[in-house]
Amino acid sequence: MSLDVLAARIADRFEKCFGHRPRWLVAAPGRVNLIGEHTDYNDGYVLPMAIDRYTLIAASRNPQREVTLNSVTTGETAAFSVRGKVQRGEPAWSNYVRGVVAGFQQRGTKVSGFDAVIDSTVPFGGGVSSSAALEVATATLIEAMGGESLDPIEKALLCQRAEHEFAGVPCGIMDQFTSVLAQENHALLLDCRSRTATPVPMIDPAITVLIINTNVRHKLVDGAYASRRSQCETAASVLKVPALRDATLKTLISAQKQLDPVVFRRARHVITENDRTVQAANAIRAGQWPLMGQLMYASHASLRDDYEVSCVELDAVVNICRSLDDQEGVIGCRMTGAGFGGCAVSLVQTDLVPHVAKKISEAYENQTENQAGIFSSRPAGGARVLR
């Protein structure tokens, strides 16, 4: 569904809810990470791209200094006041909006009340950053309402703080930075320490990004995320480096006896994944797609074995893609996102996308008794005001 069609649909929904047409329409994309997983909170490198799936908000100001949110996705309505300091509340999804509003309040912006309808085509809980898309869309709306534009990095960091403080997820910077800074037909090589984003052209029409949603989400993901972050900090402390970004495989191996075996494996993943990510950016620039495929498979193996954040369903998708190989159109595949479910990302020969999607769908259902959601995407642009 095109962005124009989505915009028309949400404007109609807004009119039905509030009795008039919306004053503002904004959109922010989800993202898929091509490679570089669990490196962002270790000051490392990631290589995401925005996807052409969006969270949209239609809104108009109201004079009561109240915020009313209607979610098309959940069918729920949330309301809170902006007369004082915004607090966490229910329903849980409203905290992504509340956190961003609170962030603007903290920087001295007077946020007026508004009525809003929220709609999204970003798969929820799929590891493609539906939460960041909602946060960035909210920030884009508040910018438009106030007639101001934040520095893009300040905007992304404000949204990241909202996720930390209001959703309780200690995420890195990749999701919000991508939703804000993405460029059409480019991936972003993001240095999570310097916060610099280098566009990496992805203009080859013969290559398509295929995203496979396993449609499963195992509940231990949030606690496991925090645990692994702590394990990485432990490893960095033992290695006497500010972050695992500064460690090498050689120094890690030399300190192996000082590390718990699990902590050693966590660090090995991060160190090798950083190397793979930089190699991957160079491979894409050079059009070396077979190398890119090898790096993706190596990344998945490391996430499965050393970081232990894969699951049966994600492994099934990757193994199915391996069985198809480049003769049947698949260049490479790996899990993407925090793990324990969600999506895998693959690179596929464009002319064979229908064939590959059919093969994956059939094999995945046979192996797991679940149905996969499969869609393709070109690298999309970042958040924008539509009206």
How is this structure best described in words?
This protein is of the alpha+beta class and 387 residues long. It has two domains: 3-201 and 381-385, Ribosomal Protein S5, domain 2 (2-Layer Sandwich), CATH 3.30.230; 207-377, 2-Layer Sandwich (Alpha-Beta Plaits). It has helices at 3-18, 94-106, 130-146, 152-167, 174-181, 221-239, 249-254, 261-286, 289-305, 312-324, 353-368, and strands spanning 24-35, 45-61, 66-71, 77-81, 114-120, 186-191, 196-201, 207-217, 330-336, 341-349, 373-377, 384-385. Strands 1, 2, 3, 4, 5, 6, 7 and 12 form an eight-stranded mixed sheet that branches. A four-stranded antiparallel sheet has the order 9-10-8-11. A hairpin with a 4-residue loop joins strand 6 (186-191) and strand 7 (196-201). The longest helix is centred in the C-terminal third of the chain and has 26 residues, at 261-286. It is globular, with a radius of gyration of 21 Å.
Which descriptors would you attach to this protein?
387 residues; alpha+beta; Ribosomal Protein S5, domain 2; Alpha-Beta Plaits; 2 domains; 43% helix
